[in-house]
Amino acid sequence: MLIDYLPGDIDYAARVAKGIALLDERFPDWWIQINLDTLDVSDGTACVTAQSAQLLEMGGDWLDGAQYFGLTWESNNVSDNTYIAHGFNAEDMPWRDGDVLKGWENYSSVGALIELTNLWRLVILERRAVLSITL
Predict the structure, then answer these.
(1) Phi, psi of 48, deg, nearest 5
(2) pLDDT under 70 in the chain at which residues?
(3) Distance (Å, rounded) from C-alpha 88 to C-alpha 117?
(4) In this structure, are residues 118 and 112 in contact, taking their beta carbons and an 8 Å threshold?
């Protein structure tokens, strides 16, 4: 699939919000149980979906979680039902004919994964703070 947007157009917070809605529907207590000490979107055994799969005893890695939540994996595909569209991963560097796509020269998938990890961590911390206030 050819990417028809630029890195600056990506709204990672909206993607994470979409992932949150899915998790809230299928695994309501996910945010209480995710281990923040190990949470890392770039680690296929410590990301949100991997930890969820482990907690639900559905497997141990990101793919087990993706399958449980009904998500497909296609590199650089952000259609509605993909892993990337739900903020669980970021695009790979897009190439065409051996060259990086114009406008993507300064994109860093590592940076995107760090941003996603931070967004997931923030949501979890915010929810936990609200929970502790209400207790």
Answers:
(1) -60, -45
(2) 1-2, 134-135
(3) 9
(4) no
